[in-house]
Amino acid sequence: MELRERLAEIHRDLDSLAAAAARERAGRLRNLQLAARALRQAESTAQWVQILADAAAPFASAIAFFRVDGAAVRCEAARGMDAVPGAISLDEAPAFRQAVESKETVVSLIAVSQLGAAAVGLQGRAHLFPLAGKTRVLGVLLAVDEAGPDVYGLEVLLSLGAAALELRAGPGVALIAAAPEVRPSARRFARTTVAAWILNFPELVSEGRARRDLYGGMGALIDGARMVYGERYQPGPDYLHEEILARLALGTPSLLGPGYRWAMGVGYGG
Fold first, then answer.
1. Domains and CATH numbers, the chain
2. Backbone phi and psi for residue 155, each to the nearest 5 degrees, phi listed first
3. Which three-class secondary structure state does DSSP give residue 138?
4. Does residue 162 contact residue 132 with C-beta atoms inside 8 Å?
5. Which pLDDT score is estimated for 17?
C-alpha cells in the first residue's frame, strides 16, 4: 500500500512539473508575441533598442545590445549589467568580430582578450547573437547566464526584431551602413520559420496538435517553406524537418499527420 501511495505521489509530482513547464513555455511564447508587436510599433530606433533589451532580459541573467559602428561596437542598452561605455574595437574583441562576420551565434569565455571592455565585471560564459537583416548586419546581443541563456528564445527574438526594423527602416535609419546581402544559415532559417508559424498561427498549431494532423491545416505553409529551403540549402542537412518535428510537433512524429512527406529530406523536388 505504501509503495502504491508513493508511486501515486511521484506521478502527481511529475504531472505538476509538466504543468509548470507547459505554463512557462506558454508564458514565454506570449512574451515573444507581445515583444514582436511592440517592436513593430516602435516609434524610433532608440525605442526599438530599449524594447528589444526588455524582451531579451528574461532569457539570461545579463544582456547588452551593441550597435555595430564601422570597425567597432557600441553599447546601446543593458539589463542585469552595467552599460559598457565608449566603443569596443572589433580588432580587440575577436568574439564580437566572429559574430559580426559569421552572422552566427558565438560562445565565448568572458575575457578582455575576447570581449574587450564588455568582459569587465562579468563571469562565466557569454553568448553573442548577431542581429542580421536582409541586407546588413544590425548589431550584436551579448547574453550571460551561468546555466546558459535561452538560446532558442533569443535567436527567435532577434529574428523578429530584425524583421521589425527592416519594415520601418528607410534611408539613413539603419543601425549601421549597408553591407553585402546576408542570407541566413540553413539552421537559422529553419528556426525562425517554424517560430514564426507558432507565433503567428497559434490556432492552427493548437488545432493541428489536437487532431494529430498538423500538416492537414498547415500544409501550404510547410510546402512553401520546404520549397524555399530546398532551393537554398539542399543538398545538405535537413534542419527544417528537425525544427518542424522538435518545435511544431513537440518531438512527436505522429502529430504531423499522415500527409506529411518531408522526413529528413524526402520529398524535395518531388
1. 39-168 (3.30.450.40), 186-265 (no CATH)
2. -65, -40
3. strand
4. yes
5. 57
Residues 6 or more apart whose CB falls under 8 angstroms from that of 28 comprise 58, 150, 153
Region 212-224: what's the mean pLDDT?
88
Q: Which three cell numbers stand for residue 187?
A: 539552421
Q: In this structure, are residues 100 and 68 in contact, taking their beta carbons and an 8 Å threshold?
A: yes
The residues with which 129 forms a beta bridge, in sequence order, are 141
Q: Of 13-27, 82-96, 143-157, give the lowest mean pLDDT range.
A: 13-27
To the nearest 10°, report the CA torsion of 192, 197, 198, 202: 160
Tell me the sheet residues that pair with 65. 77, 141
Q: Regarding predicted confidence, which is higher, 230 or 73?
A: 73
- The model's pTM is 0.62
C-alpha cell at 211: 487532431
Q: Are 249 and 255 in contact (CB under 8 A)?
A: yes
Rg (alpha carbons) of the chain, rounded to whole number: 21
